[in-house]
Design goal:
Keywords: Signal. Pfam families: ZrgA. This is DUF2796 domain-containing protein. It comes from Pseudomonas benzenivorans. The protein has one domain (2-22, 38-183). It has helices at 2-11, 13-22, 57-60, 70-83, 86-89, 113-121, 148-153; strands at 37-45, 48-56, 91-93, 97-105, 127-136, 144-146, 159-166, 169-176, 181-183. The chain is globular and about 45 Å long. The longest helix has 14 residues, at 70-83. It has 184 residues and is of the alpha+beta class.
Length: 184
């Protein structure tokens, strides 16, 4: 499954190129760090659903620098706690899915403080990477993924570029707060 998830960007490359050609060339690449934009890879294979969310920290936390103040540290802790509850953020219609794995990675979530300072001094952008695995006893009943709550809890996230591989094949779609649902 992990190999399939890692291969997703390559499998969907022709779709991404076609979609990029339809849009104004001034738009940034899907992989570029763009505040307000995030990406989500979705793979539904058999009874397993995997989600891989990548977002600039600015969209989720409101800043990208190392948390130094108590207020910043509290904000980072609160966001991390929310991201650790994927069934709240990603409403799965039917499927009877249970979370079996949550992996969160970001310079803001821990590690050596020196690394954070070095990262911030270079003017680089902090990102949050979240990987979720669900086992669904009735995966064939899974028809929709609703990101409405994610947009509500993180309003700085304006759009999410979704790439999906599922029983109906592959597709790419842009979700927004006004259109937060993805059909499998």
């Amino acid at each position: 499954m992990r190999r399939l998830l890692l291969a997703l960007p390559f499998a969907l490359l022709p779709l991404a190129i076609a979609q990029a050609n339809e849009h104004d060339h001034a738009h940034e690449s899907l992989s570029a760090h763009e505040h307000g934009a995030a990406s989500l890879n979705v793979v539904l294979e058999g009874l397993r659903l995997e989600l891989q969310l990548e977002s600039p920290a600015m969209n989720l936390v409101g800043f990208e620098h190392a948390a130094a103040s108590d207020a910043d540290k509290a904000k980072v802790a609160a966001v991390k706690a929310e991201l650790e509850q994927p069934l709240t953020l990603f409403a799965l219609a039917a499927g009877d899915c249970k979370v079996t794995q949550v992996e969160l990675q970001s310079p803001l979530f821990g590690g050596d403080a020196h690394d954070h300072e070095h990262h911030a001094d270079e003017g680089e952008h902090s990102e949050v990477h979240a990987h979720y695995r669900f086992d669904c006893t009735r995966a064939n009943e899974l028809k929709q993924l609703d990101l409405g709550e994610l947009f509500k809890r993180f309003p700085a996230t304006e759009k999410i570029q979704v790439q999906l591989i599922g029983p109906s094949g592959q597709q790419g779609v842009e979700l927004t707060a006004a259109q937060p649902r993805l059909s499998f």
